[in-house]
Write a structure and sequence with these properties.
Strand content: 15-25%
CATH class: Alpha Beta
Oligomer: single chain
CATH topology: FAD/NAD(P)-binding domain
Order of helices and strands: EEHEEHHEHEEEHEEEEHEHEEEHEEEHH
CATH architecture: 3-Layer(bba) Sandwich
Number of domains: 1
Radius of gyration: 21 Å
Largest sheet: 9 strands, mixed
Structural class: alpha/beta
Number of helices: 10
Helix content: 25-40%
Number of strands: 19
Length: about 450
């Protein structure tokens, strides 16, 4: 690992935290609460906000600071139904064409609801509708992108997505690696740490109490359907309990832990390059991803002066600086014009996958939940937080399609993803067989 790629003062904390570090909230815990939400990230805060707008004051607990997890560490890329099919191409075969169409319509509507939320609550988060480009890492991946475009356009009733041929890639990104791609217009980006901070402020403004540094240690359901919670700060009672811990779900909630696969995702931020050079690499200043098994996701910073780049630099937990070196190699292999560029930040955060690679919202033994972002959580978890709130409030006019998905586990799985190095090796081999030759350094 060469120190030449690290700028002086390199930090292993998120670049996003420079503008919006997670905030401590030392609220005193009440003995009783109408609703207790475990997890102070996007899903939990969205639930609290929707409850507050309907007259119910929620108590949000997080063992870290509010927004400390993936909610303030992610890439800040946004899409509606565009994330459906990102990790599996057999959606219609697996779930049926009508059900997939319903999920796609819900996903597209969720994006518009998200934009409306930002405007209604005046959330300061650098939101922009930039569109999203997904690069095809192999010629055969274009078929999957064509199917995704059809799905999105059917859901929208308009051309919201279109395929880019190989000779059109240069207009989107300065690389020769991709065999074509997909542009999704109903997509964009924001500053995730600013978003989660503003969402927390909005939830508090509508009556929520936010308490950081409080860990759930266990809970029991009472005969009347209410809950007794044991926390690191004492016991409390709640009429309703909601779980929004996603990639940080722990042993206090074993049923849910057995259904989630926590995966570390890593990101880097380049030093300031200036907008001209960033535009040379990413001409249309969109948010970006690709179709590889070991996928990349990247974008310009909101001020267009840096490039932020993420991916699965390791399939085991590793030091962010080691992962940063791997991501730097990925970046300059993809965009050779960036050779010599140094990095100022490298960090990681846990995302949660379900075994079916789909998001899940619902109720289990009285516990409400919104879990499994599958790497695309900003719009989705905001939406599913609202869905969970409506469930708590007594229902809505339309039940979420995603609430009808069975939330499955696997025999003997307890929440420890011991198989991830094996999966990583298989994914690396698959990408190489598809023609993606960069040395990945996956561990």
């Amino acid at each position: 690992m060469s120190d030449a790629i690290f700028a002086p003062g390199f930090q292993d904390t998120p670049y996003w935290w420079e503008a919006a570090p997670p905030a401590e909230s030392q609220a005193a815990l009440p003995e009783t609460a109408e609703v207790v939400i475990i997890g102070g990230g996007i899903a939990g805060l969205s639930t609290a906000l929707e409850l507050g707008r309907n007259g119910v004051k929620a108590l949000v607990l997080d063992r870290e600071t509010i927004g400390w997890g993936a909610s303030s560490r992610n890439g800040g890329a946004l899409s509606g139904a565009g994330s459906l099919g990102k990790v599996r191409a057999d959606l219609k075969e697996a779930f049926g064409a009508r059900f997939v169409a319903e999920m796609a319509e819900e996903g597209e509507a969720a994006f518009e609801d998200f934009a409306a939320l930002i405007e209604r609550e005046s959330l300061d988060c650098d939101f922009t509708r930039s569109g999203r480009f997904v690069g095809a890492h192999a010629a055969k991946a274009m078929e999957g992108l064509k199917r995704r475009a059809e799905l999105l356009n059917e859901a929208a009733g308009a051309e919201e997505a279109f395929v880019v041929p190989r000779d059109g890639v240069a207009a989107e990104i300065a690389t020769e690696k991709y065999h074509g791609g997909l542009v999704m217009l109903r997509a964009g980006g924001l500053h995730p740490a600013k978003y989660v901070r503003s969402l927390a402020q909005a939830a508090a403004r509508h009556g929520a109490t936010l308490a950081s540094g409080v860990a759930l240690q266990g809970y029991a359901r009472q005969a009347d359907g209410s809950f007794v919670l044991e926390t690191s700060k004492g016991r409390l009672h709640a009429k309703h309990l909601m779980l929004a811990t996603n990639g940080y779900t722990g042993a206090a909630t074993p049923w849910f832990q057995r259904r989630l696969i926590p995966v570390a995702s890593y990101m880097i931020a380049t030093e300031e390059l200036g907008e001209e050079r960033v535009r040379r690499a990413l001409p249309k200043l969109r948010v970006y991803g690709d179709t590889k098994k070991i996928l990349y996701y990247f974008r310009p910073s909101p001020d267009h002066r840096r490039i932020l780049f993420g991916g699965r630099a390791s399939f085991v937990q590793t030091d962010p600086k080691l992962a940063a070196a791997t991501l730097h190699r990925f970046l300059v292999d993809l965009i050779p014009d960036l050779v010599g560029v140094r990095i100022t930040h490298g960090w990681k955060g846990n995302v949660a996958f379900a075994f079916d690679m789909m998001p899940h919202v619902g109720i289990q033994d009285g516990v409400h939940y919104a879990l499994a972002c599958n790497g695309s959580g900003v719009v989705g978890m905001t939406h599913f937080g609202r869905v969970a709130a409506q469930q708590i409030l007594g229902g809505s006019n339309r039940v979420s399609a995603f609430a009808r998905l069975p939330f499955e586990t696997r025999p003997l799985y307890t929440g420890n993803p011991w198989f991830m190095p094996i999966v990583g090796t298989a994914y690396q081999l698959r990408d190489r067989l598809d023609g993606w030759r960069v040395k990945t350094g996956v561990e």
